[in-house]
Amino acid sequence: RLVVEEGLNQLPYENVCVTTPTGHSYQGISFLRGNCGVSVMRSGEAMERGLRDCCRSMRIGKILIQKAKENDVDAKVYYAKFPPNIENRKVLLMYPILGTGITVLKALDVLRTYNVPIENVILLTLFVSPQSLINVLTRNPALRIVTSEIHPVVPSHFGQRYFGTF
């Protein structure tokens, strides 16, 4: 959840003043309209709860991408459903483990086909290998990434372990 919260800190906001039920004024902030989340199924869905806990009204899209084999360099998109006008939104792309970066590169390609500028995408991930970071940022230098750890060995089978199907 901490990675999701830090990702939310990267979104645009405005200062607002609200009046409390007791009649006092309180200065705070409010997110600007047009933010959304996109989870890369299935493991990215594990991060949705943290996003929902913080922002119940945020729209969430989904992308299903699978590789034929564990170390396959080609990924195929099976499903993509996004909130309307995603090209005008800031997108929190949720995918917890970056081992090679192939899946995220494919997800970014899908977002590009929907005219989403990479500058509007913030990748939220828990663990990243240095090689995947190089792979993703070489092709997408404007991408912002929020992660908890960069390590040469990243956990595998996150989605299966999280959902209890390992």
From TrEMBL:
Residues 1-153 form the Phosphoribosyltransferase domain. Pfam families: UPRTase (PF14681). One of its GO terms (molecular function) is glycosyltransferase activity. Keywords: Glycosyltransferase, Transferase. Transmembrane segments: none annotated. SUPFAM superfamilies: PRTase-like. InterPro entries: PRTase-like, PRTase_dom. This is Uracil phosphoribosyltransferase-like protein. It comes from the Eukaryota.
